Amino acid sequence: QVQLQESGPGLVKPSQTLSLTCTVSGGSITSNYYYWSWIRQPPGKGLEWIGYIAYRGSTYYSPSLKSRTSISRNTSKSQFTLQLSSVTPEDTAVYYCARGPDSDYGGGYNYWGQGTQVTVSS
User: Own/partner pairs for 85-89, CB < 8 Å, 24+ apart?
Assistant: First the structure.
């Protein structure tokens, strides 16, 4: 069973960089042909896809967040990392890592981390 676990600071100051790590077990982040995404949900709002890193290491980001987003990975540790720069209180959300989009799962995400709350506040 694939398991994902988010980790990182729960509080970030405005203008600083949010950094979260997703640790994957039970599967390889380099396995063909999977994608590994970051998704967030602000309070009272819907899910927002942030971006992904693919099995070969290529990345793709939401156009609205692209200028501030960087996703990288450490394959030896089976981890991938989100960095979101210049954060504001509007970036406050529960942040999830997930496997997908998966073409065998209707383009959805069949494995998720539990989510981690990140609050942007001074």
Answer: 85/17, 85/18, 86/15, 86/17, 87/12, 87/14, 87/15, 87/16, 87/17, 87/18, 87/120, 88/14, 88/120, 89/14, 89/120, 89/121
Q: How far apart are CA 94 and CA 92, in angstroms?
A: 7
Distances (CA, A) of 64 to 27, 36, 41, 51: 30, 19, 15, 10
Rounded to whole angstroms, the Cα distance separating 30 from 7 reads 20
Q: What is the pLDDT of residues 82-101, one digit of tens each?
A: 999 999 999 999 999 999 99
Q: What is the pLDDT of residues 12-69, one digit of tens each?
A: 999 999 999 999 999 999 999 999 999 999 999 999 999 999 999 999 999 999 999 9
